[in-house]
From TrEMBL:
Keywords: Endonuclease, Hydrolase, Nuclease
GO molecular function: endonuclease activity
Annotated ranges, domain HNH nuclease: 70-119
Protein name, as recorded: 5-methylcytosine-specific restriction endonuclease McrA
CDD domains per the UniProt record, alphabetical: HNHc
Record keyword Transcription present: no
SMART domains (alphabetical): HNHc
Pfam families: HNH_5
């Protein structure tokens, strides 16, 4: 069980375990917005509903622009595990401008790639191969990328995540 944590301004911050959420509620640092009715938590002082969404009682300042770090897993997820060149299932990533030619590890220079295309392309650019990219590589956007742990979301979170998008 996981719980969506909202800032005092209803912006999604993170996803935490229901135990952590319950501690925040018990210490009066958060208030339950949505509950999971089934399977309550039993304690010496009584029973508690499991929180699905909580909101913090005080506003937490979030540092400037949240940048999504570039990872192999993130590039594959952004491209839907599909090769940027042929569209088949991708299992690796490729530098559009090869690293040997000054290509960096950035969202704009990395695409998901199947093993065959990656081996055939080698140390060349798509233009040299006369290949077309199926998509324009760009940094991912949306609350599922900026809010930690939202990749497997709960249907009860959707209204709150839609506000942030």
């Amino acid at each position: 069980m996981r719980t969506l944590v909202l800032n005092a301004g209803y912006e999604p911050l993170a996803v935490v375990s229901f135990k952590r959420a319950l501690v925040l509620v018990m210490n009066e640092k958060a208030v339950v917005v949505e509950r999971v009715e089934e399977d309550p938590v039993w304690a010496a002082a009584g029973t508690f509903d499991r929180p699905a969404v909580i909101i913090l009682t005080r506003y937490v300042r979030v540092p400037g622009a949240r940048r999504v770090p570039v990872t192999r897993r993130g590039v594959l997820r952004r491209d839907g595990h599909r090769c940027g060149y042929c569209g088949k299932a991708a299992s690796t990533i490729d530098h559009v401008l090869p690293r040997s030619r000054g290509g960096k590890d950035t969202w704009e220079n990395l695409v998901a790639c199947c093993l065959l295309c990656n081996n055939v392309k080698g140390d060349r650019t798509p233009q040299e191969m006369r290949w077309e990219l199926r998509l324009v590589p760009a940094p991912p956007r949306g609350s599922s990328w900026t809010v930690r742990g939202v990749d497997k979301s709960d249907p009860r979170w959707e209204p709150y995540l839609a506000l942030a998008a």
